[in-house]
Amino acid sequence: MKYFIANWKSHKTIAEGKQWLTTFQDLLKNDTQILTNLRENKISIIVCPPFYLLSSLKEMLAEYPNFSLGSQNISPFPEGSYTGEIAARLIKDVVKFTIIGHSERRKYFHENDAMIGLKTEVAFNEGITPILCIRSEHDQIPADVKLIAYEPVEAIGTGKNATVEEVLEMKKKLTLEEGTTFIYGGSVDGENSRHYVETDGIDGLLIGTASLEPSKFFSIISTYK
Ligand code: PGA
Q: How many angstroms is it from 34 CA to the middle of ligand 1?
């Protein structure tokens, strides 16, 4: 299974997000190859919009297998008096996944391994699958996490994507548990995605900038044959 995860970060109004999904689903419904890949569990598409868009996108989401929503973050606390936080239970009906520990969260919101561990726990408690982002082998991987995105900081939003060899090198250093899904993120676009997608051992892509345009994100998914 190859994962294609769109991380919209702090982009898109409600109208823009809905327009994105309309356009994307129009492309999807006419592409028999991608539809077959979804149905045969060969690919998984996950769209991670800002929180306020989740429920309206969920309502619009056509019923495709392996096409789901994720959040970009989750509260480290259960439901309760935590102003401004979104607890896992509050969104578990709309998301299957949540990104945890993105390097932008670590940098701008001072998330550390302890907090990331708590977030992972609350996600598991509510049946949400964490997509754990790590920057290098120095970031901890909490127990039971089976979906890991390697995102070297210098590759994010810079156009300087890591090579396939560098990604596989990092994977070797991590000594991952059996059955772990290992994906790459950082300046992936429709030009370079093919190299990762065709490589055994790289199980998918986390895409920021190029996911903001539905046609660009779609062209990346199309590189999987
Ligand atoms: P990018 O972002 O594709 O714009 O480099 C990736 C990410 O931060 O998840």
A: 23
pLDDT 10s digits, 170-194: 999 998 999 999 999 999 999 999 9
pTM: 0.97
User: What three-state secondary structure class fits 218?
Assistant: helix
Are the beta carbons of 92 and 75 closer than 8 angstroms?
no
Mention every residue, 6+ apart, whose C-beta is less than 8 A from residue 1. Answer: 41, 42, 43, 44, 66, 181, 203, 204
CA 211 – CA 149 distance, rounded (Å): 16
The encoded tokens of residue 142 equal 């909490």
Q: Which of 11, 151, 165, 198 is catalytic?
A: 151
Check pocket membership of 222 for ligand 1, CB cut-off 6 A: no
CB 154 within 8 A of CB 143: no
| Ligand 1 centroid from CA 213, angstroms | 13
- Is 145 touching ligand 1 by the criterion CB < 6 Å? no
